[in-house]
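anyone seen this seq b4? input:
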Amino acid sequence: MPQELFDLQGRTAVVTGGATGIGRMAAEALVRAGARVLIASRKGEACESAAEALNALDAPGSAEGFAGDVGSEEGVDALVKEVRARTNSLDILMNNAGTTWGAPLGQFPYDAWNRVLSVNVTGLFHLTQGLLPMLVATGTRDAPARVVNVGSVMGEVPLGDGAYSYSASKAAVLHLTKILAKELAGFYITVNALAPGPFVSSMTDFAIGDEERREKVAATVPLGRVGRDEDIAGAMLFLCGRGGSYVTGAVIPVSGGINVQTGGNIFAAALE
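predicted toks r here
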């Protein structure tokens, strides 16, 4: 019974930004669970290399890697066409592709703001919309199709850290997830989101790329560490497997408790 809850054999998934970081962690979990995984990102060669490595795992699933850019209307249209050319069936869409920009308040570039929103929100929405007919055709009452959006804990709590457009974009992703969950439930499609905290990736390399800085960041996390591959894998297999078929509109906080961090106890000092 436990294995059946997370078995994805016979399922086909698309993972954007799946060559590295959280997308790669998710892609590996899906392949190990038996899914056929289409990995797409702007760097097609990196996706091909990731797919080759995943296929060497001797797992029950398989992977294919190719170029796909969700940062423009033309890019989204091309990616939709490529997915349709590669498969007639789509069970899982993981909208993971994302970008960020950091600059102090008062110096944040206009163009950088637009670039982040175009990838993290606009591209996510339009790719989902473009692939929606395939998801609708696949979903059933007992085995709904799945959309998993990657937000961030920075979209849940007021953390800027100079990444203003990133935080705003991820807040939009989490809200959009709930809207789509409401609208697509009748088509037997679940829409959920992950809200990760710090994980080792190319996006976070500037802050946790070495052990010393990683430990400093880990000390600020309530659970005392940064995220691991299995944290993403477990969340993805739950949301995409049989065990998650009755969950939609949820935001899974894969952030070690950062999502519930608050200020100090207001009256503690007076009571000492």
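Strands lie at 12-16, 36-41, 62-67, 92-95, 145-150, 189-194, 251-252. The first strand starts at residue 12 and ends at 16. kinda curious what u guys think
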